[in-house]
Design a protein that fits this description.
Elements (H helix, E strand, L loop, with lengths): L1 H18 L28 H17 L1 H10 L5 H16 L1 H5 L2 E4 L1 E3 L6 E8 L2 E8 L23 E3 L6 E5 L5 E4 L2 E3 H5 L5 E4 L1
Antiparallel strand pairs: 1-3, 2-5, 3-4, 4-9, 5-8, 6-7, 6-9
């Protein structure tokens, strides 16, 4: 149960690091779970071959079906591949949209519902390019399956992100490729399935 919530925290931290204003600092070797302490414990050789092989396999599996692959990663989060894939998605999106992160605005999003204090949401915007980021916070005391069968399998009840009129429209989930037609609000549960992290672009 503790490790499962730690995984959620780690994916949240990675997402915020790569989407908030500033430059993300990613320590080489932490693309998978890394349970070492600080110097000198973390100064170990990095198995780049393993990471390359895992990533190439996931790229091929993603071509066959993004949602199917993500379901598989979310059901087996302890092998670390979900963190490697999220790192790949986030850094590639930054590379493809440099102005969004160099010049884009940071817009805090309003969250409503019973568990709004457990959600952080914001948008990045530059001209017509938008990115919506929604992550969970402090989940240890929330109800949900402690087995970690799905990272998104927490009961978010009626919690939702409020959309101003200027942000209504069709958004694409960066992880699943699925489309979301949003007008006024979107539920956290819909955003988080199946990984427990929300990344939508428009």
């Amino acid at each position: 149960k503790v490790a499962w919530r730690g995984i959620i925290n780690s994916l949240t931290q990675l997402t915020l690091k790569c989407t908030s204003p500033g430059v993300p600092d990613i320590y080489q070797g932490t693309e998978l779970w890394d349970l070492t302490l600080v110097d000198p414990d973390n100064r170990q050789p990095v198995d780049y071959g393993q990471r390359h092989e895992l990533l190439q396999t996931m790229i091929e599996e993603n071509k066959a079906g993004a949602r199917t692959m993500l379901d598989k990663l979310a059901q087996n989060p302890f092998d670390g591949k979900i963190k490697l894939w999220l790192t790949y998605i986030l850094l590639n999106f930054r590379k493809e949209n440099p102005d969004l992160f160099l010049k884009g605005h940071y817009i805090p999003m309003e969250v409503e519902g019973n568990l709004k204090q457990h959600i952080m949401g914001f948008a990045r915007n530059h001209n017509e390019q938008w990115l919506l980021v929604v992550v969970p916070l402090i989940t240890a005391n929330l109800s949900g399956k402690p087995s970690g069968e799905y990272l998104s399998e927490l009961d978010w009840q009626n919690t939702h992100v409020v959309f101003p009129e200027t942000m209504n429209g069709e958004w694409r989930n960066l992880l699943t490729g699925e489309k979301h037609g949003i007008s006024g609000a979107i539920s956290v549960s819909e955003i988080f399935a199946p990984t427990g992290i929300g990344l939508l672009s428009r």
